[in-house]
């Protein structure tokens, strides 16, 4: 009995001790707040001080993410290498055995120092001394964290990069493309033709040695520079029904078919649920073909080539605000179809003009209404005080405009919706019309676009939506190039970060004069032109001004 009671007490104390330790264990969330936002568990801002000039940093400016990035895998700036700080790189031993997990190469990794312990890592963060007692870079801030906050941060660093990434195996990388019910059928099919052929080509010419090959493990490049032969597999996630149900469908697709990233995609006026799914599930969504991207502060995983009609709205707002200077009482009339992408463009333009003190009114065409509805809307829109007319119309509606009114104010139209240089704008409208054009000019992009067009021709891919198909090919090429740079690292955050880093060096940029993604940016092309039609008929355009970033 005495022995039984003793064991019971010991077990109880053990359970209580374990519970107490669990309660005291530093939370990953607390460490994440320090690392990403520079906020301590107390709510106070993180404070650090650099040795160079004694410069102090506070709050978001002091957050570790600024240098070591969201993935924790570091970066290179000029001649400065910022090392990875994930647990597997900090605590990995120098010597390698075949039984150890492979430590894949990332630029800036250190293989010439002893592994850290919790104690030596805390010293490095507080005092700027590495695991071997050598001084760290003077640019590395020193942080006077208390023991609890330090434990939370170290616990978070250990969690970074831990576990296998979804959609990745030793032989396979899995991707998906999302198609919404309102996607244009021609654009959808054109995109799928390009995606499927690109994946077929990629799998026909695999690169790299076998997954079993390793290096000696005794240099800074140890166990790192080899890339496994991984095939690509593409899943098509076709959504159905109204947008309110898309999130549930996406989660079900993802549960059945975990993927590394979403590649390209085809959408109509609504893309929000797909965007929200990617941000919530931390799945990179790489350059979908959508006219109304979602852009919000703090987004990371959703990358777009441009803001689409929202960029056009910003360009038009800027031009109208400049032209209306000194015209009190003038208003802007907009025409768009309800439920189409032009509705979002009109809403964005009205908001931008409102901030400049300019009133914008709208004539809304019902969905499915015949072409005569355009004439009726135009009649309603034309009145004495109209200072500008903005047309958010598709080709069929532009063709239905008929003869231009005699007293026609300056006209602006959406190139993205209207068909770009193929827009069927009647000849009588052309002298007064400026088209917002969020791409490089046709004669300047010839070489960059001829390359994918040649690729389509050689593979017998019909060109049914040139700009969408060129963008899809570009998205595939950017992904392939980024994966090559990643070697055998498959971290999804690192995929986005490396894409942000290398994109501006890319020469073949398709329809765009230049692509750049700075840290935290999600829009690769940020400006556009205004163009006029050069002739009463035909597709020749001339620029009305320079490339503009609104």
Give the C-alpha Rg.
28 Å
Question: Mind describing the biggest β-sheet?
Answer: 7 strands, mixed
Number of strands: 17
User: In whole angstroms, how far apart are the ends?
Assistant: 83 Å
Q: Could you name the CATH topology of the largest domain?
A: Rossmann fold
CATH architecture of the largest domain: 3-Layer(aba) Sandwich
What is the CATH homologous superfamily assignment of the largest domain?
A: Response regulator
Mean pLDDT across every amino acid position: 88
How many helices does DSSP assign? 17
Low-confidence segments: 1-23, 208-225
Please indicate the percent range of residues in DSSP E strands (runs of 2 or more): 5-15%
Query: What's the number of structural domains?
Result: 3
Which CATH class of the largest domain? Alpha Beta
Description:
Helix 7 links the parallel strand 6 and strand 7 (231-238). Strands 12-11-13-14-15-16-17 form a seven-stranded mixed sheet. Strands 7-6-8-9-10 form a five-stranded parallel sheet. The longest helix has 23 residues, at 2-24. 36% of the residues lie in helices and 14% in strands. The protein has three domains: 26-159; 172-306 and 444-519, 3-Layer(aba) Sandwich (Rossmann fold), CATH 3.40.50.2300; 309-437 and 530-543, 3-Layer(aba) Sandwich (Rossmann fold). The N and C termini lie far apart (83 Å). The chain contains 17 helices and 17 strands. The radius of gyration is 28 Å and the shape is globular. Helix 2 packs across helix 6, helix 7 packs parallel to helix 16 and helix 16 (466-486) crosses helix 17. It is of the alpha/beta class and 550 residues long.
């Amino acid at each position: 009995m005495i022995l039984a009671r003793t064991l019971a007490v010991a077990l109880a104390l053990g359970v209580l001790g374990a519970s107490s330790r669990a309660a005291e264990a530093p939370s990953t969330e607390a460490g994440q707040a320090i690392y990403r936002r520079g906020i301590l568990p107390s709510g106070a801002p993180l404070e650090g001080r650099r040795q160079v000039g004694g410069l102090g940093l506070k709050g978001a400016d002091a957050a570790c993410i600024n240098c070591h990035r969201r993935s924790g895998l570091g970066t290179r700036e000029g001649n400065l290498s910022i090392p990875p700080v994930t647990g597997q790189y900090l605590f990995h031993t120098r010597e390698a055995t075949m039984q150890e997990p492979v430590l894949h190469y990332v630029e800036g990794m250190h293989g010439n120092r002893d592994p850290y312990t919790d104690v030596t890592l805390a010293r490095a963060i507080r005092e700027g001394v590495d695991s071997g007692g050598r001084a760290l870079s003077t640019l590395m801030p020193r942080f006077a964290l208390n023991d609890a906050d330090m434990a939370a941060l170290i616990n978070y660093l250990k969690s970074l990069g831990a576990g296998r990434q979804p959609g990745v195996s030793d032989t396979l990388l899995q991707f998906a493309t999302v198609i919404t019910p309102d996607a244009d059928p021609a654009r959808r099919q054109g995109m799928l033709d390009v995606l499927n052929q690109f994946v077929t080509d990629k799998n026909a010419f695999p690169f790299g040695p076998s997954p079993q090959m390793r290096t000696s493990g005794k240099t800074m490049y140890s166990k790192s520079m080899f890339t496994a032969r991984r095939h690509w597999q593409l899943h098509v996630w076709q959504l159905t029904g109204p947008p309110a149900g898309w999130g549930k469908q996406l989660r079900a697709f993802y549960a059945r078919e975990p993927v590394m990233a979403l590649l390209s995609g085809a959408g109509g006026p609504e893309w929000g649920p797909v965007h929200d799914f990617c941000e919530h599930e931390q799945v990179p969504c790489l350059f979908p073909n959508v006219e109304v991207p979602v852009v919000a502060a703090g987004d990371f995983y959703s990358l777009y080539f441009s803001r689409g009609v929202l960029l056009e709205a910003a360009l038009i707002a800027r031009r109208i605000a400049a032209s209306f200077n000194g015209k009190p009482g003038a208003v802007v009339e907009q025409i768009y179809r309800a439920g189409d992408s032009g509705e979002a463009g009109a809403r964005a333009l009205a908001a931008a003009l409102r901030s400049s003190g300019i009133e914008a009114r709208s004539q809304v065409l019902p969905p499915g209404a015949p072409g005569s509805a355009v004439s009726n809307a135009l009649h309603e829109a034309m009145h004495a005080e109209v200072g500008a007319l903005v047309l958010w119309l598709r080709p069929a509606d532009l063709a239905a405009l008929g003869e231009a009114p005699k007293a026609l104010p300056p006209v602006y139209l959406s190139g993205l919706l209207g068909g770009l240089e193929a827009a069927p704008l009647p000849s009588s409208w052309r002298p007064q019309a400026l088209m917002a054009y969020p791409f490089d000019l046709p004669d300047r992009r010839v070489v960059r676009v001829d390359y994918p067009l040649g690729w389509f021709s050689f593979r017998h891919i019909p060109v049914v939506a040139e700009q969408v198909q060129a963008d899809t090919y570009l998205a595939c090429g950017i992904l392939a190039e980024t994966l090559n740079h990643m070697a055998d690292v498959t971290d999804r955050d690192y995929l986005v970060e490396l894409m942000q880093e290398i994109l501006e060096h890319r020469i073949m940029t398709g329809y765009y004069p230049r692509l750049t993604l700075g840290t935290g940016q999600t829009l690769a092309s940020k400006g556009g032109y205004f163009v006029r039609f050069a002739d009463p008929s035909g597709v020749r355009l001339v620029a009305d001004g320079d490339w503009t970033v609104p």
